[in-house]
Amino acid sequence: MIKKTGLATCVASALSLGLLQGAIAQESSDAAVLDTLTVVGDSKEAEQDSYKAKSSSAATKLDLTPRETPQSISTITRAQLDDFKLTSVNDALKNTTGISVEEVETDRTYFTARGFDITNFQYDGLGTPFVYGNLDGSIDTAPFERIEIVRGANGLMTGTGNPSATVNFVRKRPTLEPQARIDLTAGSWDLRRIDTDVSGALTESGNVRGRVVYANENKNSYLDRYSREKNVFHGVLEFDLDDSTLFSLGHTLQKTDSNSPMWGALPLVDSAGQPTHLSRSTSTSSDWAYWDNQENRTFAELSHRFDNGWEAKGVLTRVEKRGDSKLFYVYGTPNAQTGLGLAAYPSQYKDENKQWIADLYVSGPFALAGREHELMLGVNWSKSNLDDDSYYGRGIGTALPPMSEWDGNYPEPPFDASTAGSTFEDKQKSVYSAARFSLTDKLSLIAGARATKLDSDGDSYGVKKKRSDDDITPYAGLVYDINDLFSVYASYTEIFDPQSRLDASGNRLAPVEGTSYETGVKGELFDGRLNVSAAVFKTKQDNIAESAGFVNGRQAYSGANYLSEGYEFEVSGEVLPGLQAVAGYTYVDIQDENHGHGKTYVPKHLVRASATYRVPSLEQLKVGASVNWQDDIHRDVDIGGRLARVEQDAYAVVNLMASYDIDPHWTVSANLNNLTDEKYLTSLYWDQGYYAAPRNASMSVSWKY
Questions:
Q1: CA 476, CA 605: separation in Å to the nearest integer?
Q2: Is the C or the N end of the chain the one with fewer CB within 10 Å?
Q3: Which stretches make up the TonB-dependent receptor plug domain (predicted)?
């Protein structure tokens, strides 16, 4: 029997060595006939199927290829999103190298990479950090062309240097040529979904273009009583003010309404310290609970390209988020014999967050010492106002029946037992710059810094939150081209990450500080159709927020120090003619200040692999599979003053897909998820947890023009 670490090593070796050797051999063969051979193919179809990452400015605001970027970077392409029906950001990131999606509840999620929470999220390269460090609801992928992930600290663009990852959502933009697409999907648990996407010129000259995306999803669940509906609208207009100036105006609305969502999750151990082994359909929610989230995101963008190659761009973004919920939390430890010992905690919550974000930068080439280089200069300003109110229900502490007998039938109480809440404002100002210096024909240096000032004022649950922090975050990276195929790189950044989480007294934790290093090798093979990379990283952080239990129904945190070390491999693109793949392996070791295993709920080994293949003898047919594997994790839970261990064994989730192009306009497809019907916990991020979905399927019909 192969050990778990052995399995991961075998997978990594197959990805990094087998594909690499084949790629080099193929590259050499291609090079021998390059002067006389011309390949003719359906480039449009290849582009639509492609899993290869494109150039990105997410790391530096300089338009760099993955090979030119001195950090690990992955891309979830539109093809991968469509092939495997990754309609939520949660589903998309579950299929991304090095990322763990911590679904602690049905409608609240944390994301981690390299052992640390991901709090830096961007839209078209403009950062919008989560106020609470987590996602409420579910972000739909319908408005996005692709999703880019820069792993490691990205202090230059985000101002904080969080060493986990930066996720950049690249929005769909108008096209000059008319195009349209409609997808209809039906699946398990009454899943019904429609996606529409229409784009093209709105004037005869094409100087005004528009694009409209709409999606609706309605479904029940394998979880008792739970159901959810999503409505998504995305619209963008582009105006060519002249040959060099473009004005864009866009708006995205997403509304998620959930019935009987889970707030908190299942008790995982009983009073004897043994696993509860509940059914995976078990939910702690009541039948009257709901959680509705709505986000409106509007942006205006003006860009101008000068004759000397320089470009100026300004973006103004307005974000409004609203949440309204009545929730039912279950706490306590069930008795090992009777299952009794659980109690009720009903509450009502309303929250509203309004953000203004402004960003202005210029970039372009400049000459120095007889060589051409690139420079970027920018300023950023943002303001965020948050108001949230908690209305606690009567009957907190009421005894409940055993979970195995719980049917959600609990009288809805008046929510007037007590009230609390938060009202505070966060402001951020920053100036940033980066340059790419061409030191030699083979060696380039990317260096930059960001000066950031953050001010907070207000109160949260009776505690004043006035605070001011400022810091300069430097960034540096070297890239050396070994030959036409491969480059080596190294990068360094400092970490300065102000935190919104509160300690047991209700005070905001001091900022996280630290350093992050990364070095690796990247390659572009098969005439640029395949990217390969390998990286080694090391990060030291002080005062990371760690769960310290619940205080008066509120999650409290304390600061901890960690050292994170590891390595990862990834390949993405066309491995063989017709075979598109993205596959990655990550190993991460997290040590606490006592040199012990720091975060036991974070898997040390992760494998993420997805591939599709167009059958040569029947090119209308595309088949594919994805595999997400992680090794075992655990968490120690306090039950009456003693610790009980909750374990999740190593597991793999296998998904299958197939699609058939009936003609140039019509396609039918089918998806099968969790082929082996694996039963596993979605997360051990908290002391509670719940089980992921069992085997399920969907079918789709698509029309495109």
A1: 28
A2: N
A3: 66-165
